[in-house]
């Protein structure tokens, strides 16, 4: 009997040791354990947005990332899933997804196997940076409804339950976008924004924002019910899950703390905030002075989206398209400019120095002036249009762009252009203002991440709890994105892998 007890104790000790050897206590952690057995079901067959860390428990860089990874997972619980794959135990997963160092972070999103082909996150590894980027990755399947369009909305996919959010915001919230993905094909989610909502709110007994009304499958506009529960993400998942006859993902009523689910105005504002809006329109660049001010030496952290026109007959169409693009991306850190160099010999020299493709009469590029890199939309993908621009800019925001180094010196462009004293002062102020930022970006560039750009990871939080994840917080360790452990058990800079 004594021998049996000793064996049991030893077995339990070994189990405890095995559990302790992993980075995450999955029984308590907001991070989801992913294995060779459950990865397909949980990640690949899902419509949810997943951030997946491929790690090795012995890796020092993985250990440094773990607190930020759990903090980000906790912050976005009910919005984005965060998973972990122990590659010591699941080497087949590391091989399948091309993992060459630890930690490697892959992003899975969208609906269908083609859409869910992963991209690699190579941004900063602070909780704030990860949260900011995760919010940007969530697809938006929410239908924007005008005041006279409710009947049409209910008729479309009438076999589904329908949910309408009345909101005083002018853009779709992160939480609602996430819900639209979670219940894609099971419930149709729409929203009516304040200007439109004011005209019909009395019909649906809406007295404050945000407010939800919902409809059973086949119901008409008079057959609605009001949701009066809390608006935190987990509660909303359960509300819609119950509406469609299921519980969404891992979130059940037991995961919600009733003491925190009061649905206060403060809680509502945390999840339905308004991102900062940028000015709509594309400014004209006519020479080196304006090109430097608007692109190469911007005072903010915006990426410059420049359209160089080499065929004057396309000038008006390009200007209109760029204005439309600036409207679509007015909540993103992008600044739009247009340069007509069709009759400008010195301007053409700049285009030639950048080796831009002029075959279609317009070249669309993204420039990161202070990081001295740029990328061009491939003209081989078709004529320039708003749709073509959207395709390119979505890749820019998603970090799926391969950048080239800018030439160390660019040819002078239209030296007759007059730079005002204000321009000079702004440029000098920009140099001072971005000195610290550039130093951080240089460190990031030196640590790896070549071939992609995670601009959004450097973006200031637009609202909500993300503000607590500020750089420099002693509880939010800063880890450079290029630092990885090699698969052979050594630590090295990921530049060696590229």
Strand line-up in the sheet with most strands: 12-14-13-15-16-17
Low confidence ranges: 4-20, 247-275, 417-479, 492-498
What oligomeric state do the depicted chains represent?
single chain
Number of beta strands? 19
Average pLDDT level: 78
Number of helices: 16
Form type:
flat
Q: Class by helix and strand content?
A: alpha/beta
Strand content: 15-25%
Percent helix, as a range, is: 25-40%
Rg: 25 Å
Sheet having the most strands: 6 strands, mixed
How far apart the termini lie comes to 58 Å
Family: Belongs to the protein disulfide isomerase family.
Keywords: Endoplasmic reticulum, Repeat, Signal
Organism: Rhodosorus marinus
Pfam family, one: Thioredoxin
Write a concise synopsis of the structure shown.
The protein is α/β, with parallel strands linked by helices and 498 residues long. The chain contains 16 helices and 19 strands.
Q: Could you please describe the fold and organization of this structure?
A:
The protein has about 500 residues and is α/β, with parallel strands linked by helices. The protein contains 16 helices and 19 strands. Strands 12-14-13-15-16-17 form a 6-stranded mixed sheet, with helices on both faces. The N and C termini lie far apart (about 60 Å). Residues about 5-20, about 245-275, about 415-480 and about 490-498 have low confidence and may be disordered.
Main attributes of the structure:
498 residues; alpha/beta; five-stranded mixed sheet; 17% strand; disordered C terminus; endoplasmic reticulum; Thioredoxin_CS; Thioredoxin-like_sf
């Amino acid at each position: 009997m004594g021998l049996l007890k000793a064996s049991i104790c030893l077995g339990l000790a070994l189990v405890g040791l095995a559990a302790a050897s992993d980075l995450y206590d999955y029984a308590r952690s907001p991070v989801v354990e992913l294995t060779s057995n459950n990865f397909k079901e949980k990640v690949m067959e899902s419509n949810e947005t997943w951030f997946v860390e491929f790690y090795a428990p012995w890796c020092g860089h993985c250990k440094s990332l773990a607190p930020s990874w759990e903090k980000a997972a906790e912050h976005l619980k009910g919005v984005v899933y965060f998973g972990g794959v122990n590659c010591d135990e699941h080497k087949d997963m590391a091989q399948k997804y091309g993992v060459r160092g630890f930690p490697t972070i892959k992003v899975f999103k969208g609906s269908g196997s083609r859409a869910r082909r992963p991209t690699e996150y190579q941004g900063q590894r602070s909780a704030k940076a990860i949260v900011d980027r995760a919010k940007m990755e969530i697809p938006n399947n929410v239908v924007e409804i005008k005041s006279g369009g409710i009947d049409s909305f209910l008729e479309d996919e009438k076999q589904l339950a329908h949910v309408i959010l009345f909101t005083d915001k002018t853009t779709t919230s992160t939480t609602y976008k996430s819900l639209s993905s979670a219940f894609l094909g099971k419930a149709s989610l729409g929203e009516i924004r304040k200007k439109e909502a004011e005209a019909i709110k009395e019909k649906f007994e809406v007295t404050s924002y945000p407010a939800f009304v919902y409809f059973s499958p086949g119901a008409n506009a008079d057959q609605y019910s009001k949701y009066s529960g809390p608006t935190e993400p987990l509660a909303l998942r359960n509300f819609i899950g119950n509406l469609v006859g299921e519980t969404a993902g891992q979130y059940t009523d037991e995961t919600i703390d009733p003491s925190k689910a009061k649905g206060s105005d403060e809680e509502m504002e945390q999840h339905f905030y308004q991102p900062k809006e940028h000015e709509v329109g594309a400014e004209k660049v006519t020479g080196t002075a304006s090109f430097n001010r608007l692109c190469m030496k911007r005072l903010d952290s915006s990426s410059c989206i420049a359209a160089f026109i080499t065929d004057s007959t396309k000038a008006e169409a390009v200007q209109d398209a760029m204005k439309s693009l600036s409207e679509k991306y007015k909540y993103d850190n992008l600044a739009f400019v247009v340069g007509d160099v069709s009759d400008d010999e010195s301007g053409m020299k700049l285009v030639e120095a950048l080796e831009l493709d002029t075959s279609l009469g317009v070249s669309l590029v993204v420039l990161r002036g202070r990081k001295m890199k740029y990328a061009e939309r491939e003209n081989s993908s078709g004529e320039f249009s708003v749709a073509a621009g959207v395709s390119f800019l979505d890749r820019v925001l998603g970090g799926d762009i391969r950048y080239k180094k800018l030439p160390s010196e660019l040819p002078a462009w239209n030296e007759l252009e007059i730079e005002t004293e204000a321009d000079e002062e702004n440029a000098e102020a920009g140099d001072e203002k971005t000195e610290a930022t550039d130093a951080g970006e240089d460190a990031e560039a030196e640590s790896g991440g070549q071939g992609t750009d995670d601009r959004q990871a450097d973006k200031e939080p637009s609202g909500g709890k993300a503000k607590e994840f500020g750089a420099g917080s002693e509880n939010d360790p800063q880890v450079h994105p290029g630092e990885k452990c090699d698969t052979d058990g050594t630590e090295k800079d990921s530049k060696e892998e590229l």
